[in-house]
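Pilot study result, target chain (442 residues):
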Amino acid sequence: MLEHVRRSLRLAIPVMLGRAGLIIMITVDSIMTGRAAAEELAYYAISLAPHMTLLVVGIGLMIGTVVLTAQSDGAGRRTEAASIWVTSLGIAGGLGAVWCVVLLAGEHLLLWLGQSPPIAAGGAGPLVMFAWGMPAILMYIATTFFLEGLSRPGPGMVVALSANLVNAGLNWVFIYGHLGAPEMGAAGAALATSITRYVMLAALAWYAVRMLGHGRHGFHGPLRIRREIARRLLAIGAPLSIAAGLETACFATVTAFAGHLGAVPLAGFQIPFNVITFVFMLAIGLSTSTSVRVANAVGRRDRPGMAAAGWTGLGLVVVLMFGLAAAISAFGPDIAGLYTADAAVLAIAAPAMSLAALITIVDGAQAVALGALRGAGDVLIPTLSHAFSFWVVAVPTAYVLGVAGSTGVRGLLWGLFAGLTCAVVLLSWRFAVVSRRGVHPV
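Predicted structure:
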């Protein structure tokens, strides 16, 4: 068991840091935007909801990249790797272009989601700026998954963390209007992020081609999109994309509920929600590590190894999340104070941090349980579990408590906690079933 823990952490830690690098970018955007003005933080928050929903749906579609790469690596078929990556890049670029067109609708999209005209008008600018970076971030994620499937998470970690320096500098220019640039507020933060995403893609793709450009991983021949690999990628990714979309659309809907409460509650909701998202990205590191190790075991047709890898990952994430939750609960008001000095926003955000701490535990656990199942190639039942957990439990509960009731932002967060707890129970039960039956590579 200790060997399983060691191997899981060796892969998980750089993946965790790489995912943390991505969410640090959003956290810095939120902090710097909130320092510009409370209403700019509200505009950034409402633009982030549809943007993140489409992004996570795209990431879900790319998950097959890490699964196929890891299974082929575990089975000793390493020369398939380059074809998997190139095919995944083609899917990512095409979907990114589609998402770009959707987000360019900007204000009309936010009005369709039920936002008031002033909030929709304010959120339109950052939403359009996010649109231009969608192809880059999805192609970057596809490349990250490819390298992680080969148990090479280090380059993605370095690129994601380093990119924050670029993003912060561009934020300073575009949010506040330095060096002759216009003062753009929330739209400037989104523009800085989109530019940074292209820099990240260029750096990581250069590594993949230059450092892995040897015959062992299939880079010696012509690189082209292969229809059979695309079919397998989509067979794995489509249900997981739906599952991820159901979860993120739930979060976006709850954020929209906060928008119905007003600009100040929306800004107050964004602060604990951003903390939850940041911690979730750390859990995603363990989720990816667990998925790779489960997929490696499936490639070897090693059922006991598959079970051990899955339960080890789940145990590790629970320990990690409890520690982080304790820190968030203890320092909640101080963390909220980093985002804004507005007293009205702090009055909402600071008390909600203890509830955010509780949510991080179940959110991390469901992420790793889902990762274990996707490594095993089990995708349909988890998708149905997400549909029930988030749309039968979380969204109605959040609406009843936070909008129809009198608890406001805290009620919205209680709704998320209820849905995530349900997801943990259902996904853990499913992995218990899957890990006791025979293994079959996809």
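One observation from the pilot: Residues 2-434 form one domain. A full batch analysis is planned for the follow-on phase.
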